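Hi D.,

Good news: the full-assembly prediction came through. Inputs first.
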Amino acid sequence: MALELLGISVALYVAASLLGFGVLRWRLAADLSVAAALVAGLLVAVTAAVWLGGAHASLTLPISTPIGGLAFRATPLAGTFLLLSGVVGAGISLYTAGYAPHVGGPLRQASLHGLLNLTFASILLLLAAANAFTFLLAWETMVITTYALVTLEFDRPGRPQAALLMLVLAKVGFIAMAIGFIALGALRAGVSFAFLAHHPTAGGALASAAFVLFLIGFGVKAGLVPLQGWLSEAHPAAPANVSAALSGIVVSMGIYGLVLTVVTLLPSPADWWGYLAMGVGVLSAAYGVLFSLLVPNLKRMLAYSTIENLGFMVAMLGVALVFASSHQHLLAAAALVVVILHAFYHALLKSTLFLGAGCVDVGARGLDMDRLGGLARRMRWSTVLFFIGVMGLSGVPPLNGFQTEWLGLQMLIRGRVLATPESRVYMAAAGMVLTLTFALAATAYIRVFGGAFLGAPRSRRAEHAVEVPITMRLGMLVTAGVAVLTALIPPLGLGAPVASVEGATHVPGLLNALLPPFFLHPSQFALPIRVGGTFLSGILHANGMVIVPTRFSYAFISPTYIFLSLVCIIALTAGGLRLLGRGARRERDVWIGAGSEYRASMQYTSSSFTNLFRSTFGGVFRDQREIQRDYHQAPFFTHSVRYLRRVVEPVDAYLYRPVVTLARGLSLAAGRLQSGHVNLYLLYLLVVFVVVLVVR
Amino acid sequence: MSRWIAKGLRSGVHTTRFPSAAATATAEEGAPSTVQVRWQGLTPAVALAASSLCPTAALSTSGAELAGELRFDAGACVLCGRCTREFPSAFTAVSDPRVAVQSRDHLRATFRWNEEKELAPVALQAEVAALERATSQLFRHSLHIRHVDAGSCNGCESELQMLSSPYVDLHRLGLFFTPTPRHADALLVTGVVTTNMKEALLDTYAAMPSPKLVIAAGACAISCGSFQGSPMSKGPLDQLLPVDAYIPGCPPTPQALLHGLLLAVGRARERYRAGEEELDGA
Amino acid sequence: MSGELQRLADAVGIQLEWRRQDEAYVRCSENAFQKTTSRLAARATLSDLFATNTPESPARLTAVLQAQGDPAWLLVTVELAEMAFASLTPDVHAASWYEREILEMHGLEPLGHPAPGPLRLHDWPNEHHPMRDQGDAVAELPQARRQARRPSVTGQGVFQLPLGPVRSGPQESAEFLFSSGGEDIVELDLRLGFKYRALERLAEGQTLAQALHLSERLAGTSAFANGLAFTLAAERALGVNISSASGHARSLLAELERLHSHFGTIGRLADTTGLLVAAAQYGLLKEEVLRACGRLTGHRYLRGVLRVGGMEVLPDAPARVWLQSRLKEWGARAERLRRLLEQTATFIDRLDTTAILHPDYALEHHLVGPVGRASKIDRDVRRDHPYAAYQTVDFDVPMVGDGDAEARFQIYAAELTQSFSILGQLLDNWPAADDGRVVIPRHAGSSLGWAESPGGETLHWLELDHDCRVVRWRARPASVVNWHPYAHACGSGNNLTDYPVIEASFSLSPAEFDR
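Then the structure:
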């Protein structure tokens, strides 16, 4: 049942892909392709529910090679990732119906439909992979299709280079992954993940090497510094729906890969694994958020925000490993829940944001936030849906980001159960940096929303922005709606990751530890709580609507009740003002001191809003300021001034460029071997012949 | 920083008790707030001489001696001191700072000589009855003032800045200056309204929400003062906006300004009337 | 007479015509004016450049120069035949704003001026020139039509912050348009002229007394200094000498005005850096000085005290004794406050390196007053061209070289100390009273008049007809010069949060500039 549903979904996606390529011949094919993909997405969500329910199934195809065969299985761990793939996929597919015409002509649209659905199909196969060979095969398919998608608009400047960088880093990751699997002995015929889970490699150098290799390998997709360069280049370069797929689903595969290998295949971690993962994660989070505060391009900002969120996820994975190595299994499982929960929420919300960025690109024909503004009045629905994404990811209660950030920090606080003072200090330090990161992330999102959507339009294009087609908005509504629903009903939101983690780690009582069964005995509580307790109890195993960070102590939150209170307060205030307010409203010009006429340039831009951070953290990216003046005859008679501000991205400048330069140099040097002279080649042959004779 | 706190505490309280009845601030000031005409016994010769001295035509005569008129406008008096120095019996400097009025006519007085060469005041046309200021009740104890400099010489601004000095301290009376007209209850205008500032002034007035008060401070705002006849003057203020209180002076002293502000919100009473010697009883 | 001016004239190759002991004239032809004045201004200071429009001289330009160390003034005039002249600005940057004013007020075009935009009459139609228009045209000068101004700064994320003309507290009207990248001031677009009251035009045809009255109403915080400069011009034009008691009284009151102005300035400076106690203490001092002025003269801002030929009011002996005791007390308090301020790190740090005005820049623009002295411009008319009773007192002219806000603060504080010393000397050596009113002759004449206002050198020029009525009155208070470098000083690496400190440290008056 579990795998059959998956198979049907895969088939539907492949069909959608073929129909997509058929757009070249047949106009109607686009709608059919979208419809097929939509159905597939919904089916995937149902499949995920089945998998999360605890179904275990497996299927081995008769194709076999020396390094393994094609085998698939259904696991609860993959269930949450399957769920997010399905929902986000459905949203993106619906969005593509309206967005594809803006990408280009029939050839591009066909490629878009076709390749996107192939990507989804390959992701499904990836999640169902039962051994390393299948896993790597599906992974490579995904890499190739996403590369092709990123180069879709290859005629725009910088796109091919971005895609190439993505490909190169993906290759680096693939190699690391493959070697890791080899180290564990997974790339052999007949060895499946289940087998390895039951016969784990004993600790020691091999396991540690495998861990580091997996960290590098999946770290590429998971945007860990210093392998994150492709993220900030490829996500802005791709069309919006592809960026949403990349930031939503593909990077989540990196997290899935990490959890799968590190948690299930290497179950007895050394403590330094956790510290390493935490360090790298926190570093990536800080790196991502700093740049998200600076860049004026909307999509680049979202890409850096993805790096920040992924860093947080990997840091929490590190926390889980630290707890696991100290035999605090419940806490480790809880930290793991945070990882997967954040992956789930992030996928939903970031894809909403990227789809929203696509709406801005289509509606206002530009992504430079310093030249947007005033879109809230002209693109109402896009604004509202984008705002949901912003609210969710900026960590404002009661929505998604707040829940996971709060849970994550609570887990770090629980680091006080650790034995050594160094580890406790490390946990606290990580907590401090993460808290700063969250605050800066909130600032970055305020900057984005305020700069692009609020205020007055700063350019003609923003002035003439139009709302986007209904399908695009509906696509965003799917992802945003699911995000809000799962945030406000904790059993829905938390339920999936908890089921995944229980399936992966077999820690008992995890759900009750995080979502206590307050309301299974409703008569002991007052009416409002009873209402919450029985709500949805027929549909879900509704423990209650209150989240606690393991073992009820002094901290708990209830997103549902926060939301209801907010609604009441706002309704009361608005209603009260409406009743009590008197007098007609008058409209007047903006007050700027009664001087010259108001211009849209007289408002903060998104770059100037965060100028302070540019100065404060200037050391990190070598912030430089230059003012150039044009004047008549003497600097006193200036008639125009140019203000230039430059930053340097450290990883790009100090790692990638030197590596590229070195590689070029080496290959040039090696190239001298191929001089083109036949005599020299004959000499080479002679030397090799002699060497072989001698060695033999 | 603690040294500053200690210094402030040591220097004690200097704030005047004005406007409480006990302190009508005569010796404190040392400078007059406006001028009063002692018209009983004023001869035409003195009147003529004084009006030829007056630089702003606050004192002006017209007509032949026996049928002549003397017009006195305290709103145009710039305290140059010429008439009070030359003819101290006829023109006295008023040192009581409570000189603000609510009606422009209260600053004007006209006198006519009869056949016996005696001066008598001419009743002005039907004075506007005591104006009902329903709005003034709203801001009684908390008034937010938006000041606009519509072309002053910066003397009035200097006196307005002295309102925040510890001697006067307008905050203790619930009076505040606000930077935005959206939060303002009263518009305080200084300066003859110049051509270049007229639009800005009217925009500021329009940007204030009703109910609102308008206060003209200084001779320039009330009557164009020294700049009568300037081609750049579009005032006086009451040609452009409805004025609720007038504060004469050039510049008006800080306590006169306080009195004017309190008068506008109904916490003080008018005590000066041009041509009437005794100020209204307490 | 140091003869510096004569040497300068010989070096440039012109013939001086000495009308008075300390006023020399040169009449140039149209071709020679630009070259002569530029060469003179390279070695001397250009103190003023203005146009005159009378029936006899419909288009006359006058440049006023002074040489370091010479108490004499040099006036270079030229009668223009056309409504245009060769601009001095390319060689003498200090002439820039003077020429713009000449263009907008008189319609004489400076050819070759790099940026001849309006100075006070922004958004006006070009055919109106208030000092030249006649009849109806002058009676009904047009409404300014506010127009949107294109920002001159481009760059990623640059935005504009408009301030004014209606500003935050009880402040004068002026418009500042900042261009900022976020925290810093990239460029300041300054617009003055909102308070233009056409005083110079209003004074034409008035009697001396009336014009003196107008000169006192030009500004409030430098009312006495402007009145004093006017009175000096009138007395020199008519050849009137004043009694030494009047001279002492004039110096006394001028120094009292300097006291209250500097107390106000330092108080505002402390306020902008958050030292409310210091601001309150200086406020107390300023109010006490104002009350003393009121008690001595009957007007807090010393208006109505001056008369051409003498003083309306002379302080009597009891008043002088009272004043002496008050001065001692004020001096002690001011000194304690100054020391306390210098030890307050939050104050000094905010002022240090804020709004630096480099000495070369100051020299190029011929700045005056405390702002100039903080940038190494050693000029003070009380010392260089003594008037009233300043010959009889000893005082220093403090000078600092940094040019930042802290240097200006040091100058204000040091000038206060010097003022107290001058006042003490004046009161100690008060001459016998002499109340014989001087007879003012009635004939034509013209002359310069000057005074050191709290903001710096104030220069007036007065031309009277045979009926002793004003033909041309030119007022050039200190702020007319010192607003020049303001935008430049704001833009050199300062933050928006520094702006109130900058404005308080310069202590400039839009009213003085606009007239």
